[in-house]
Amino acid sequence: MTAPLPDFIRLRELVNHPARNGKPATKGIVPMAQSAWLRGVARNEYPAPVKLGPGITAWRGQDIQALLDRWSGKGGGE
Fold first, then answer.
1. Is the dihedral of CA 28, 5, 56, 38 positive or negative?
2. Which of 7, 20, 27, 58 has its CA 20 to 30 A from that of 68?
3. Average model confidence (pLDDT) for the chain?
4. What is the DSSP string of 29-59?
5. Could you tell me how far CA 3 lies from the centroid of its own chain?
6. Are 47 and 59 in contact (CB under 8 A)?
7. Residue numbers in the chain where pLDDT is lower than 50
């Protein structure tokens, strides 16, 4: 069993980021690069973000969980 997702997820936790400027690479909740994720959001393939405040954009944890469930075949069909 996996831990439940938080209510809101920022982009830096959501997608993979390569090592850069001495910082190690990070693996996100969704197994893809930021550019691929944002392209999918623009095409309405992935959930839309919500604005939490000036300069603060996040995705609802329940939307991401539904997407992951759909990808794993647990989504109940759409």
1. positive
2. 20
3. 91
4. SSSSBHHHHHHHHHTTSSPPPEEEETTEEEE
5. 15
6. yes
7. 1, 78
